[in-house]
């Protein structure tokens, strides 16, 4: 059994981790922390976990996290970089679901996240946890930086194209939409029901903090710099991401076959038949990315549609997938939940 702890389990990614780990046949959940909720039963805060999880939130200062094999950080940005190093030094492996270790250029990270980095040495050692790209690195990692939700959808949608070098890498466009749970479990005016419901808007068009993460990943895949225009939108739904991706064709190819061969054998990427239009409901609560390709009017622009659940393949599910790889377990273990419909 893998002894697991969770730091910061009161947010949406935290409860999603709990939902998945409570069903995992090889996981023993031993601790979950929250300063504000210490002493509260997890099932009192999240009734969906009643009779499935018998744990109470503990103060992180007193929780015995060093006895764990692995600790997940489901915390706001800036927490893991201060707390994870002590666990890593004690031999505990760590998966951070926030952004503290994703961007290799520390100065760039500090510019986008507005704080000084407390553990730049661990940034260099961290492995970026996109399994479909670096399964080997993840298997040996002590610290995994779990990708963001938008970056997961955009990178999986573009990856076969940038790896093959068949599109113009200087003019990629990602037009993305996310449900309100992507903003986290906190009270903010833009995500109040009366603000987000019956509404649709773009945001952070001048620059979103996921942009450097996506560019870093795509540039690594392409082995050269990649130019990307990234525009996120907020949609009036709870969960789900829909990414409409545009790439100008440089070298003609059988693009459907390119995607099917690249993702053949990947349990959590589903390349749909030609002409398909994936919707977010088809991946709701599942650790899955569905992808479809279009070439409008047989022109020079390829359109890739990619959908994920932002809390599962875009966060907690991918983190469990990474855990399975790190501990030599079957990658799909504990992650075969079907999408929920309607």
From TrEMBL:
Signal peptide: none annotated. PROSITE patterns: ARGC (PS01224). Pathway: Amino-acid biosynthesis; L-arginine biosynthesis; N(2)-acetyl-L-ornithine from L-glutamate: step 3/4. Its EC number is 1.2.1.38. GO terms for biological process: L-arginine biosynthetic process. GO terms for cellular component: cytoplasm. InterPro entries: AGPR, AGPR_AS, AGPR_dimerisation_dom, AGPR_type-1, NAD(P)-bd_dom_sf, Semialdehyde_DH_NAD-bd. It is found in: Cytoplasm. GO terms for molecular function: N-acetyl-gamma-glutamyl-phosphate reductase activity; NAD binding; NADP+ binding. The keyword NADP applies. Keywords: Amino-acid biosynthesis, Arginine biosynthesis, Cytoplasm, NADP, Oxidoreductase. Residues 3-141 form the Semialdehyde dehydrogenase NAD-binding domain. The active site is at residue 149. It comes from the Bacteria. Catalyzes the NADPH-dependent reduction of N-acetyl-5-glutamyl phosphate to yield N-acetyl-L-glutamate 5-semialdehyde. This is N-acetyl-gamma-glutamyl-phosphate reductase. The lineage of its organism: Bacteria, Pseudomonadati, Pseudomonadota, Betaproteobacteria, Candidatus Accumulibacter.
């Amino acid at each position: 059994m893998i002894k697991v702890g969770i730091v910061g389990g009161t947010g949406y990614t935290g409860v999603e981790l709990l939902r998945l780990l409570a069903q995992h046949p090889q996981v023993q959940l031993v601790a979950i922390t929250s300063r504000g909720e210490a002493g509260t039963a997890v099932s009192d805060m999240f009734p969906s976990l009643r009779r499935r999880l018998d744990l109470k939130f503990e103060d992180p200062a007193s929780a015995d996290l060093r006895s764990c094999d692995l600790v997940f950080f489901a915390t706001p940005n800036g927490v893991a970089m201060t707390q994870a190093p002590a666990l890593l030094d004690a031999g505990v492996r760590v998966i951070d679901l926030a952004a503290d270790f994703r961007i290799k250029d520390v100065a760039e990270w500090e510019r986008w996240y507005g704080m000084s980095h407390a553990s730049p040495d661990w940034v260099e050692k961290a492995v970026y946890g996109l399994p479909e790209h670096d399964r080997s690195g993840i298997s040996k990692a002590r610290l995994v930086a779990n990708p963001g939700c938008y970056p997961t959808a955009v990178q999986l949608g573009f990856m076969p194209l940038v790896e093959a070098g068949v599109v113009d890498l200087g003019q990629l466009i990602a037009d993305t939409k996310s449900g309100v749970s992507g903003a986290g479990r906190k009270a903010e005016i833009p995500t109040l029901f009366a603000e987000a419901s019956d509404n649709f808007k773009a945001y952070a068009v001048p620059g979103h903090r996921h942009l450097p993460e996506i560019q870093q990943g795509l540039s690594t895949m392409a082995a050269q710099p990649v130019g990307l225009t990234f525009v996120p939108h907020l949609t009036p739904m709870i969960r789900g991401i829909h990414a409409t991706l545009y790439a100008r064709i440089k070298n003609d190819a059988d693009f459907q076959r390119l995607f099917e061969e690249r993702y053949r054998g990947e349990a959590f990427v589903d390349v749909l038949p030609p002409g398909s239009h994936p919707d977010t409901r088809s991946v709701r609560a599942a650790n899955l990315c569905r992808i479809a390709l279009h070439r409008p009017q047989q022109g020079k622009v390829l359109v890739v549609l990619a959908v994920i659940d932002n809390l599962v393949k875009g966060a907690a599910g991918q983190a469990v997938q990474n855990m399975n790889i790190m501990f030599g377990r079957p990658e799909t273990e504990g992650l075969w939940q079907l999408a929920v419909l309607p």
